[in-house]
């Protein structure tokens, strides 16, 4: 008898789509929008929701999808939907539509859709845990550290809904792929997980052919080789597959515009609401304690290694070594006012002008002095990857404990690792998380803020 996967799992996504369409259509009747033809509006928003959902992969939420990824999908979906919704006014010539009511409608849709999205996500998780439904039977081929970690996840994360059945060890002399194939067919295995490093090319091809011909999902576990630890991406040049070793989200035009728009809005708000009155106060304190300029300007390397002038409130007495040596704990060059503004990170606030001018971003890898950049580029592997994006006032490395003075190579190596992770996994939600954590760290105070 031919293998049939779970009877109802393919109905889950259409069911969720149907429920969402019901929500967006039913909610419109809660508001006095003054729409001329409600039926045209319902057809328009339904069609547009489906198109946006397909483009946004809104329903591609898997059992192992993280909460932060769902939130990102929701925010992106509702922003695109809102833009398309307001385009209805001009496209269908509806001047009498209430913009306020339409805005209230969008917010309500966002709240209802978010509630349903998370309710269904957690309901399915509980269904898998307690009722043992929606399970996927899996086997693992290979015996190494990665396969053991994966098996442990299968056995402990019951909310994922994986039922681990058996592990096949290729090092065992009695092992054969044919035995493995027979077990898969006899036990109705849904998914096959196999270590790449333990298979020959011939075995990989046999495994792929079997999975294709028997409607099984085949997934490979990367070994510990460096190339497999990267976030790989395929592109096709005609019919030739090209493997890209680093996918940078901010290379995407939409992501780039989104981040730049956020930078302009956020930096403008800080400059108007905070720096407008704080700058004269800090300037007065700096001038009262020591002679010299209020602002400190230093050349640093930014996007594509281009040099720019980075601004800070002056926190040290004027000295010729300011552009050569990093500040150290107990540095005699730091003034009393400087100690306070460095501890609270107030000295960094003028960099919001750098953000507004386009040299920096609110969040990104912290820029280094030109002399230090040249030094680390020679000593630290992949240090230059940080310059694929604009530098930031704060960053993932800084909130993870790697800010301030570089006391050893381990500090800069870890900083680079966090920076590369940020570059390869950027999202607006991640930026917001880093900003909030930066503010909390500034309030609490940090050991390396000196």
From TrEMBL:
Q: Does the keyword Transmembrane helix apply?
A: yes
Q: Does the keyword Transmembrane helix apply?
A: yes
* Localization in the cell: Membrane
Name the membrane topology term: Multi-pass membrane protein
What's the superkingdom here? Bacteria
Principal subcellular localization: membrane
Q: What is its EC number?
A: 2.7.8.31
Q: What sequence ranges are listed for the domain Bacterial sugar transferase?
A: 259-443
What is the enzyme's class at the highest EC level? transferase
Tell me the GO molecular function terms: undecaprenyl-phosphate glucose phosphotransferase activity
UniProt KW keywords: Membrane, Transferase, Transmembrane, Transmembrane helix
According to the record, the segments passing through the membrane are 12-31, 37-55, 67-89, 101-124, 264-286
Q: What family is this protein classified in?
A: Belongs to the bacterial sugar transferase family.
The record ties this protein, via NCBIfam families, to: EPS_sugtrans (TIGR03025), WcaJ_sugtrans (TIGR03023)
Tell me the PANTHER family matching this sequence: COLANIC BIOSYNTHESIS UDP-GLUCOSE LIPID CARRIER TRANSFERASE (PTHR30576), UNDECAPRENYL-PHOSPHATE N-ACETYLGALACTOSAMINYL 1-PHOSPHATE TRANSFERASE-RELATED (PTHR30576:SF0)
This chain belongs to the protein called Undecaprenyl-phosphate glucose phosphotransferase
Q: Which organism is it from?
A: Gilvirhabdus luticola
